[in-house]
Amino acid sequence: MLTKPETFPEKDTQTTHQSGLLRHIGVFAAVTVVMSSMIGSGVFKKIAPMSDGLQSPGLVLLAWLLAGIVTLMGSLTNAEIAGLIAEPGGQYVYFRRMYGKMFAFLYGWACFAVIQSASQASIAYVFAHSVNTLVPLPQLSPELEAFSLFGVIYPLKNFGVKILTVCLLCLLTTVNYRGVKYGSSVSAVFTSSVVLCIFTIVILGLTISGGSMDNIATNASGFDISRVNTSTSGLLGAMFTAMVSAFWAYDGWNNLSFLGGEVKNPKRTIPLALGIGVSLVTGIYLLINFTYLYVMPIDEMIAVFNTPNTIAAVEVVKKIATSAENFFGIAHQDTPSILSLSGITFISTLILLATFGSTNSSILSTSRVYFAMAKDGLFFKKAAYCHPVYKTPSIALLMQCTWSCILVFSGSFDQLTDMLIFAAFIFYGAGAFGVFVLRRKMPDAPRPYKAIGYPVLPALFVLCCIALVTVSLLERPLQSLTGLFLILTGLPFYLSWKKNIV
C-alpha cells in the first residue's frame, strides 16, 4: 500500500540551538568533517597487514570495496535517524529514543573509555611519530624509559613522542574550545590538503612509477586460496580480519551526527553530508589502494608488513621516486637522491596533515556526546556547561582531553584500539536496527530522508554487523571480550548517576 509522501520540513534558520551551542556548520563544512573523521593513518598503513593476511591483490581490493559498501550502507541507514533527530550528542540521543537511557549511556561510556578517546590518542600518536621521522624528538635515558608500573605500563617510553602527542591534543582542544567555527575550518583546510596530496600520489603512481597491471593480477608466491590465513574460519575469517583493518580506516563516518546542535538546517544537511562524504572517501580509498598494489607487487608489500617501523605508503612513494630518478637519469647508486628524500618527506607530511585533521574532527565532534549525557544527568555534571562566550561544551572538551592524555602515557591505547572495531560495530548494528524501532515508535514523524532500500538495506547492514562481531569473537576472543568488559565497566557509574536523577 502506498503511503502519502512526507513533506520536507521548513528550513531551520535558528543560529543558536536551545542548548546554547552555535549553529555554524554548513554543507561543505559538514562533508569535510565526515571525510576528515575517516581519513587518518589507516589509509597509509593498513594495506600491508591486509596483503599479508590475504596474499592476493584482488582479494585485498575486494576487502576494501566490501568494507566501503558496508560503511556506505551504514551511513545511508543512519542518515534517516540523523534527519529525524538532530540534537547534540547524535548517536547517544538516538539510542536514548530507541532503547532507553541505560543502553545510550553504555554507548557514551564506551566512546569515553575506548572508542573515541583511545582513537584520538592513537591518531595523535601517529602524528607525533611521523614528526619524529622527520625531526628526531628528544628521549630520556634508557634507565628512565625502562621505568614501568606493574611491569606492564611504561609511561616514559618514547617520551618525546608522547609529549608531542599530548601537546597536539591540548592544542586542538584549545582550538575547539574557542568555537565550532575554528574547529570546522581546520577540518576543511586539512581535508582539502590531504585529498589533493592523495591524488598526487595516484597520478604519479599510475604514470611514472614503473608499475604494472601484472602486479594487480599476480598473487603472492605460494598463494593457495584454500590455506589463506591460519584463521579458524578459513578464507571467510581471513576476509573479515582484513575488513577489520579496512574498517579502522573507514571508521569515524558517524561523528558528524554528534554535532546535530551546531549544523545549519541539520535535518537536511546531516543526511546529505553523510552520503556525499562516505561515498567520496570510499572512492578515494579504492583508488589509492589500487595505486599501491599497481606500484608494488604483493610479495614486496608483505615484506613491508614483516619489516619493523615501515609504512606501506612511504615504501610506495620511495618506489615512485626511484622510478622517476631512472626516468630522468639522476639515480644514485650509493646514496639516496633528492627525489627519494623528497618523497619520504612528502608522505610523512601527508600523514601529518591527515592525522592532524582526523584528530581535530574527533575532538570537535565527540565532546558533544558527553555534553548530552551530562544534560541527562548521566555524566559528570560540569560536562553539561556551555561556554557563554564561545558557545562550546568547554568542560566536556577538557575532560575528554585529560582522559586521552592519560591513555597516551599509559601506553595502552594501541591495545585499546584493537578492541575499537568490535565495540563500534555492536553499536553500529544497534543503530541501524533502530531504524525499524523508530518507524514503529514514531510512525508519523516527518522524515526528510528515508533509508534507501528500506527494509532490505538496513537489514543487510545489521546482518553484516552481527557477522563481523561473531567472527571477531572467534578470531580475537581475548580482545573482543576485553572490549565488551570495558563497555560494561560503565554500569556502576550508570547506577550511581541514575540515583541522582529526579
Give an overview in words.
The chain is mainly alpha-helical and 502 residues long. The chain has a single domain (27-498), classed as Amino acid/polyamine transporter I (Up-down Bundle), CATH 1.20.1740. The protein is 69% helix and 0% strand. The chain has helices spanning 27-38, 42-45, 47-54, 57-84, 91-99, 101-115, 117-134, 142-145, 159-177, 180-207, 213-217, 234-250, 266-295, 298-305, 312-328, 338-375, 394-410, 413-418, 420-441, 456-475, 477-488, 490-498. It is globular and about 70 Å long. Residues 1-10 have low confidence and may be disordered. It is found in: Membrane. The chain crosses the membrane at residues 21-39, 59-85, 106-128, 159-177, 189-211, 231-250, 270-295, 338-358, 395-413, 419-439, 451-474, 480-497.
Q: What series of H and E elements makes up the topology?
A: HHHHHHHHHHHHHHHHHHHHHH
Rg, nearest Å: 23 Å
Shape, per Cα inertia axes: globular
Look at the helices and sheets and give the structural class.
Answer: mainly alpha
Low-confidence stretches: 1-10
- Mean of residue pLDDT? 84
| Count of distinct structural domains | 1
Q: Kindly, what is the distance between the CA atoms of the first and last residues, rounded to a whole number of angstroms?
A: 45 Å
Q: What percentage of residues falls in helices of 4 or more residues? A: 55-70%
Quantity of strands, as a count: 0
Number of helices: 22
In this structure, how is the largest beta sheet organized? none
Any idea what the CATH architecture is? Up-down Bundle
CATH-derived topology: Amino acid/polyamine transporter I
CATH C-level: Mainly Alpha
Protein name: Amino acid permease
GO molecular function, one term: L-amino acid transmembrane transporter activity
Organism: Rhodocytophaga rosea
Membrane topology: Multi-pass membrane protein
